[in-house]
Each structure stands twice: as structure tokens, then as C-alpha cells.
Amino acid sequence: MRKRKGNYSKKLLPALTNNFVGLNIQKHRRNQNIKQETLAKAIGVSRISLSNYENNIWPVPLDILLLAANVLHIGADLLLEDVPPPEEFVK
């Protein structure tokens, strides 16, 4: 299990600001009957941090999305469902 140190990932990796990402993490976590505390520990964040991601208080960093997908045994594409493409790709 990888522990995050400080805010390095927020500086190096983009965060996904669309509110569907956190809701999708929550949906898949609940569908698998995994507690917030269990998933948070597995991806190396606090339960409060995971709650903030799931409730769209904080944007989900890309590394957290990938770790969550791995722990939930799903593809990252499932966590990106219903997320519209960035505006620069919609022309």
C-alpha cells in the first residue's frame, strides 16, 4: 500500500473536478459493501479525505482515482462514467 506524503500528487497530477467521479467511487464502494474506512486505508488516505472526494468537496486526484479503481477491482473507465469530455475536446 502506497502512502501519500503531503500534497505532491496534487502538484504533479491533475485532479478531476467533475462531480461524477466522487459519486462513482461512492457507488462502486457501496455496491461492494466496502466501508469508507476500509477503502480509505487501502488507497492511503484518511476516511475524511475519501468522504470529501465522494461528496465533491475536493476534486479527485488522478492517482486516487487509479488506486480506487484498482482496490475496487474495476476499470478506471467505470469511475469516469457520465463525465463529459473537457471543453477543449468538444468543438
Characterise the protein shown here:
The chain is mainly alpha-helical and 91 residues long. The protein has a domain at 24-83: lambda repressor-like DNA-binding domains (434 Repressor (Amino-terminal Domain), Orthogonal Bundle), CATH 1.10.260.40. Helix content is 53%, strand content 4%. The chain has helices at 8-12, 19-31, 36-43, 47-54, 62-71, 76-79, and strands spanning 15-16, 60-61. Strands 1-2 form a two-stranded antiparallel ribbon. α3 (36-43) crosses α4 (47-54). It is globular. The termini are far apart.
Estimate the mean pLDDT confidence.
Answer: 82
> What coarse outline follows from CA principal-axis ratios?
globular
The radius of gyration over CA amounts to 13 Å
Q: Poorly predicted ranges (pLDDT <50, ≥5 residues)?
A: 5-12
Largest sheet: 2 strands, antiparallel
CATH class of the domain at 24-83: Mainly Alpha
Give, in order, the helices and strands.
HEHHHEHH
Count the strands? 2
CATH topology of the domain at 24-83: 434 Repressor (Amino-terminal Domain)
The CATH homologous superfamily name of the domain at 24-83 equals lambda repressor-like DNA-binding domains
The structure class reads mainly alpha
Q: Into which percentage range does the β-strand content fall?
A: under 5%
Number of H/I helices: 6
N→C terminal distance? 41 Å
Query: Mind telling me which CATH architecture of the domain at 24-83 this is?
Result: Orthogonal Bundle
Helix content: 40-55%
Lateral arrangement of strands in the main beta sheet: 1-2
